[in-house]
Amino acid sequence: MKVKVNPNVCIGCGACQAVAPDVFEVNDEGVAEAIITDEISMDLVEDATDAKEGCPVNAIYDPEEEEMEEAA
Q1: What CATH class is the domain 4-71?
Q2: DSSP letter assigned to residue 25
Q3: Which of 5, 14, 33, 70 has its CB surrounded by the most CB atoms within 10 Å?
Q4: Dihedral sign, Cα of residue 31, residue 36, residue 41, residue 43
Q5: Which residues pair with 32 in a beta bridge?
């Protein structure tokens, strides 16, 4: 699993950072970003998934899932 944050959608509420601080942080511009750009280790996948599902504006996405949808 990989995750990215759409900075045009993110409202910088910090929920993702609270749930998965080893995966996300709110940057100097006030929006969240993934601090892990490669594959997320298995011990952090559950936290990353919880953060993705809990994002109030659905700004977090898995770029690999989008690639699969585009190919279909």
Answers
A1: alpha beta
A2: E
A3: 5
A4: negative
A5: 26
Looking at residue 65, its pLDDT comes to 81
- Local structure of 47: helix, strand or coil: helix
pLDDT along the chain (72 residues), means of 10: 97 98 97 95 97 98 74 58
Contact (CB, 8 A) for 44 and 15: no
Phi then psi for 47, rounded to 5 degrees?
A: -65, -45
Query: What pLDDT sits at residue 29?
Result: 95
Q: Which amino acid is at 6?
A: N
**pLDDT at 68 (0 to 100):** 54
Assess contact for 2 and 62: CB atoms under 8 A: yes
